[in-house]
């Protein structure tokens, strides 16, 4: 059973400290949600675990099954079983989506285990159908011209096909309408198993209607300030985050300038529309 | 005489193919679809029909001519492959390709330098009224022999020529294309993909001249410069006065791999008419860090991720003609250049 252990993690970007002592353990079969307002360091945590070159870890440890993750390069982390569904995945012109995913799958297999084109196409087509994605997807260039929702589904497509041991989904709900969210939620829920631990990052409770989490962590000022279960989730949904700030005496929950975490207008608009109903 | 195994595999897989070694016919297998197309060594009389291309004529008798003629209304989607191999001597070849009105042709033109042979390939294209021509040219070399391509393309009214070129040479290379949009609604797309390595110096020139109203020209240059090589793109879109509603666009993109490699683009738009659309863009630099991070986060090593990103630059060549053996050949040529 996999175990991702983060202890007292501090990280900075361009001289600014964003993570100020995050501790968290995710085991196989568990689903954790990290919630919190924008700009509190949630996505930074995801990027630091994956090894984005922009961030510098200054203190603390990350281990996967007691192996030091911080010593690994990005690709070594992926092959060890870490997966990050990204908020804004890069566009790669000229590289077709199917070539990309096939290369990614074969990168973690030994020479005699590599998938043939036929084997690959079979599982790829099945995953594309289950995610209700368009049929021309295999031939389209990676993320180029994809809508926000298509990019998110494509991240989940990779999750399904790469079968990681620890999956981190960063704001996978943003840019998805309610129907798409249900499809993504069903697919992710179906993947739950003791051999995979999951970490969901979101600032709305909405995602958790579709993917059930066992544990909820609230992040503010680059730290986890509160951890709880279903009750905590409900309270955040009803009352927001102000009461937590009051309880802990936090005035400004943010650790970084606004532009570092983009607010997606469509997301907020959907939330408002739902509230209006 | 034998061909290199890689070329032989490709030639075997092509349905309709004519191979010249040096300037002699070596092998021919033509599909029924191309029965009406004539190939001859007649020097075409081209002076009156190429009013703008003074240098389109064979300059000396030393160049050996090949004339390809597609009669009116003859059309086929099946590609015809023309292969030129320089073996026992340096090659200076002159190909005259003429499509009559309403004719359509898809042509794969493979030019291969064996050992250190040098090649000069002069291609004149005359696309008659309403003709459609799709050319994919792939230039490869084994050694460091010099390469020169000189294309002169004349497009009449309502005709369309798409020229896609992959330049995989190792020696000094000059790839020069001049397109004349001679009749209203004439259209041209010229896409050149070039790779340079070691101390190679390559120059890619493309000029599209609008000599009729309502014409459209699009130039796309893409390239990868590795090691200590230099790759230069020069694109010119020229719209003459009175050629209203014409469109001249140009895009240059490329990746610089070596610390001492250079890749420059000099796009030019020369426009003497107000009522037109024109523009150019460029994206040239090192491999994008975000793309690398994304691919590596899926488990690919840095080297494999870089290879995949660079392979993306071949996409226009693969899109030009859908043919598995040809695509495999393009991948081999790429991996041979970028190790």
Any key phrases for this structure?
heterodimer, A: 277 residues, Rossmann fold, 6-stranded mixed beta sheet, 36% helix, B: 339 residues, mainly beta, 2 domains, 9-stranded mixed beta sheet, 19 strands
Number of domains of chain A: 1
- Strand neighbour order, sheet with most strands of chain A: 6-9-10-3-11-12
Rg calculated over all Cα atoms of chain A = 18 Å
Give the class of chain B from helix and strand content and strand pairing: mainly beta
Low-confidence stretches of chain B: none
Number of strands of chain B: 19
Question: Beta-sheet strand percentage of chain A?
Answer: 25-35%
Strand content of chain B: over 45%
CATH level-four homologous superfamily name of chain A? P-loop containing nucleotide triphosphate hydrolases
Please report the number of helical segments of chain B.
5
Total helix count of chain A? Answer: 9
Largest sheet of chain B: 10 strands, mixed
**What helical percentage do the residues of chain B reach?**
10-25%
Work out the number of β strands of chain A: 12
Helix content of chain A: 25-40%
Q: What does it look like?
A:
The complex is a heterodimer of chains A (277) and B (339). Helices cover 36% and strands 26% of the residues of chain A. With 277 residues, chain A is α/β, with parallel strands linked by helices. Chain A has a single domain, classed as P-loop containing nucleotide triphosphate hydrolases (Rossmann fold). Chain A is globular. Chain B is mainly beta and 339 residues long. Chain B folds into two domains: 282 residues; 53 residues, no CATH class. In chain B, the strands form two sheets. In chain B, strands 2-1-5-7-9-11-13-15-17-19 form a ten-stranded mixed sheet. The model of chain B has no long low-confidence stretch (mean pLDDT 92). At the A-B interface, helix 2, strand 7 and helix 3 of A face helix 2 and helix 3 of B.
């Amino acid at each position: 059973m996999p175990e991702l252990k983060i202890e007292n993690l501090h990280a900075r970007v361009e001289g600014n400290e964003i993570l100020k002592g995050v501790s968290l353990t995710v085991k196989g079969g568990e689903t954790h949600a990290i919630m919190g307002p924008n700009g509190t360091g949630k996505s930074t945590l995801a990027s630091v675990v994956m090894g984005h070159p922009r961030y510098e870890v200054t203190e603390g440890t990350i281990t996967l099954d007691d192996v030091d993750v911080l010593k690994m390069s990005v690709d070594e982390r992926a092959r060890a079983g870490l997966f990050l569904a990204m908020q804004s995945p890069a566009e790669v012109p000229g590289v077709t989506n199917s070539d990309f995913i096939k290369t990614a799958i074969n990168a973690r297999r030994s020479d005699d285990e590599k998938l043939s084109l036929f084997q690959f196409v079979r599982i790829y087509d099945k995953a594309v159908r289950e995610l209700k994605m368009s049929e021309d997807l295999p031939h389209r260039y990676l993320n180029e011209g994809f809508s926000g929702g298509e990019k998110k589904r494509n991240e989940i497509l990779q999750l399904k096909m790469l079968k990681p041991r620890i999956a981190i989904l960063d704001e996978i709900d943003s840019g998805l309408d309610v129907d798409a969210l249900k499809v993504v939620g069903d697919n992710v829920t179906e993947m739950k198993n003791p051999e995979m631990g999951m970490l969901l990052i979101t600032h709305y409770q909405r995602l958790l209607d579709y993917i059930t989490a066992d544990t909820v962590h609230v992040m503010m000022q680059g730290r986890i300030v509160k951890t709880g279960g279903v009750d905590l989730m409900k309270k955040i949904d009803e009352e927001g985050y102000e009461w937590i700030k009051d309880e802990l005496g936090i005035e400004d929950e943010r650790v970084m300038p606004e532009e570092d975490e983009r607010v997606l207008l469509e997301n907020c608009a959907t939330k408002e529309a739902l509230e209006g109903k | 005489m034998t061909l290199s195994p890689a070329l032989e595999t490709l030639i075997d897989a092509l349905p309709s193919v004519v191979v010249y070694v040096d300037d002699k016919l070596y092998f021919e297998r033509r599909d029924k679809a191309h029965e009406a197309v004539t190939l001859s060594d007649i020097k075409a009389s081209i002076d009156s029909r190429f009013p703008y291309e003074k240098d389109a004529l064979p300059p000396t008798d030393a160049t050996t001519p090949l004339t390809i003629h597609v009669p009116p209304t003859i059309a086929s989607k099946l590609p015809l492959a023309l292969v030129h191999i320089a073996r026992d001597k340096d090659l200076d070849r002159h190909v005259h390709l003429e499509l009559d009105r309403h004719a359509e042709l898809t042509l794969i033109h493979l030019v291969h330098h064996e050992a250190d042979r040098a090649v000069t390939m002069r291609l004149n294209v005359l696309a008659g009224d309403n003709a459609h021509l799709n050319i994919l040219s792939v230039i490869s070399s084994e050694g460091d022999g010099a390469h020169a391509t000189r294309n002169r393309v004349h497009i009449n009214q309502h005709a369309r020529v798409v020229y896609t070129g992959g330049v995989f040479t190792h020696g000094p290379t000059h790839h020069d294309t001049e397109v004349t949009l001679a009749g209203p609604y004439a259209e041209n797309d010229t896409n050149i993909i070039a790779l340079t390595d070691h101390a190679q110096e390559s120059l890619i020139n493309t000029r599209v001249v609008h000599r009729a109203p309502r014409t459209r020209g699009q130039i796309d240059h893409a390239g990868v410069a590795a090691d200590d090589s230099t790759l230069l793109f020069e694109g010119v879109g020229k719209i003459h006065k009175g050629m209203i509603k014409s469109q001249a666009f140009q895009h240059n993109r490329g990746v610089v791999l070596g610390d001492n490699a250079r890749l420059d683009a000099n796009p030019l738009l020369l426009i003497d008419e107000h009522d037109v659309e024109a523009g150019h863009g460029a994206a040239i630099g090192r491999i994008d860090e975000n793309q690398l991070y994304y691919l590596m986060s899926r488990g690919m090593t840095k080297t494999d991720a870089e290879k995949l990103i660079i392979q993306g630059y071949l996409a226009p060549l693969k899109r030009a003609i859908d043919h598995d053996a040809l695509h495999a050949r393009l991948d081999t040529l790429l991996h041979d250049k970028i190790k």
